[in-house]
Amino acid sequence: MVIAVLEQNYESTQAIPRAGLPAAFDSEAESLELTVRLVRFLQARGYRARAHGKMDAQTIPFAIAAGLGQLGLNRQLLTPAAGSRCRLTMLTTDAPLAMGDAVDYGLHGICDRCQVCVHRCPVGAIPKRRKMHRGVEKIKINQKRCFATVAQADGCAVCMKVCPVQRYGLAAVLSEFAHSGRILGRGSDQLEGYDWPLDGRHYGPGERPRLPIAFHDPPGFGFRVH
Ligand code: SF4
Ligand code: SF4
After folding, report:
1. Ligand 1 center to residue 52 CA distance, Å?
2. What mean pLDDT is reported for the chain?
3. Residue from 21, 126, 223 whose mutation best tests the ligand 2 pocket (most atoms within 8 A of CB)
4. pTM, entire model
5. 160 alpha carbon to ligand 2 midpoint, in Å?
6. Where along the chain do its domains lie?
7. Is 162 near ligand 2, meaning CB less than 6 Å away?
8. Residues contacting 43, CB < 8 A, separation 6+
9. Cα distances (angstroms) measured from residue 124 to each of 86, 92, 116, 217, 218
10. CA contacts within 13 A on the Cβ side of 217
11. Please, which pLDDT band fits residue 225 given cuts at 50, 70 and 90?
């Protein structure tokens, strides 16, 4: 199993949710194209190789096991270089490859002190604490609220945009924390602010859009959440 990570455009990601979808689609398309090229490269050397779609398996647990990052409170893979501002693809092959190992980058401790995504999610879908779920301690996002928001607000992804690891990189976040005990950018409009596509307003730290009850349960959205 190979997990490939491609960094998403930095500038476009800072304009999420307004400019998030084009950036996501562009990097998703590029990452799929690169993965197919890698598959063909391996096949041309006599190995079996196959690219896999999103429905074949969860990429994030494999990425964590390979040491590419750790799970953030936003339930996304936080890579040290770009946080969750990246796209993951997966392929399997019988080529002899060195296996990666999980790495503790210190991200869980940063998340516990940061909590910016928890406070900035427009619909409060991210809980503050991890809980045991099917034998694993992790954050359980309110998927019904999240999916309804993603579907109606240009893909949302505010929880990616406001993450300091995404914006500044883990090295800078760890350095600031070691120096001052503060989370880099926390409380600043640069990190926490976003333009909400449904009303065109800018929401700075401490402000969130007011959404009608119907927003959370739009007609035709019959989610089954497990
Ligand atoms: S915003 Fe903060 S709490 Fe959320 S994933 Fe990023 S580092 Fe962790
Ligand atoms: S995508 Fe939006 S609604 Fe879903 S958890 Fe992230 S910030 Fe919240």
Report:
1. 28
2. 93
3. 126
4. 0.93
5. 8
6. 2-93, 108-216
7. no
8. 49
9. 23, 37, 12, 15, 17
10. 3
11. low
